[in-house]
Amino acid sequence: MTEFIRTPDDNFTELRDFKFRPYYHKWQDMRLHYLDEGPRDGPVMLLLHGMPTWSYLYRDFIFPLTQAGYRCIAPDYLGFGRSDKPTDIHWYTIARHTEVLSTLLVHLDLKNINLVCQDWGGGQ
Question: Can you spell out the DSSP letters for 80-110?
Answer without folding.
Answer: STTS-EES-GGG--HHHHHHHHHHHHHHTT-
